[in-house]
Amino acid sequence: MHAALDDLLCDLDGLFAGEGDPIANAANAAAAIFQHIPRINWAGFYFLRDGVLVLGPFQGRPACVRIPLGRGVCGSAAERGETVVVADVHAFPGHIACDGDSRSEIVVPLLRDGVVLGVLDIDSPELARFGAAERSLFEAVGRAWVASSRA
Questions:
Q1: Cα separation of 81 and 95, whole Å?
Q2: Is pTM beyond 0.90 here?
Q3: 63/92 Cα distance (integer angstroms)
Q4: How confident is the model at residue 2 (pLDDT cuts 50, 70, 90)?
Q5: Could you list the residue range(s) of the whole structural domain that residue 14 is in?
Q6: For residue 14, what is the domain's CATH number?
Q7: Residue 32 and residue 25 in contact, taking contact as beta carbons nearer than 8 Å
Q8: At a CB cut-off of 8 Å and minimum separation 6, what does 92 contact?
């Protein structure tokens, strides 16, 4: 697993180099995550617009377009400004089921100077798919996206 994590971060360094467009970088990040990380079924971004998370670039099945702050795993992570890891999404109060096959989820807020810009969301069809290594990785991906994007 560590090789996949290292490969993903290396690929993102190259993909983000010299590119400041946040949508282009989010699209490449979602594709790279989906390519490198096994046992996931969705990877993508939501951007905070007028107090609502709006769907951005992603890989996987079609997704919910708008998520209010505080709703579901994504809205909770954005509202708290901290990563939320859920071992069983069906046990998470207020979970929003965009893909019924998803069983676990990790959502990382995208923070610039303490302000939430959006979230990075990764789902898996396996229970308890995400642990400390994935949390560390996806938080690093989020920081890299924020650092690369001029938005």
A1: 18
A2: yes
A3: 18
A4: low
A5: 2-148
A6: 3.30.450.40
A7: no
A8: 72, 73, 86, 105
Q: What are phi and psi of 103, to 5 degrees?
A: -120, -30
133-139, long-range: CB < 8 A, 24+ apart: 133/1, 133/2, 133/5, 134/37, 134/106, 135/83, 135/85, 135/106, 135/108, 137/5, 137/8, 137/9, 138/33, 138/83, 138/106, 138/108, 139/83, 139/108
Q: In whole angstroms, what is the distance from residue 2 CA to residue 91 CA?
A: 29
Total domain count, the chain: 1
3-state secondary structure of 16: helix
Q: Amino acid identity of 85?
A: V
Q: What six digits make up the tokens of 55?
A: 């769907």
Q: How confident is the model at residue 61 (pLDDT cuts 50, 70, 90)?
A: very high
Spatial separation of the C-alpha atoms in residues 148 and 20, rounded to whole Å: 5
Query: Starting from the edge strand earliest in sequence, which strands make up the sheet with 104-112, in order?
Result: 66-68, 52-60, 42-49, 115-124, 104-112, 84-86
Q: How far apart are the first and last CA of the chain?
A: 32
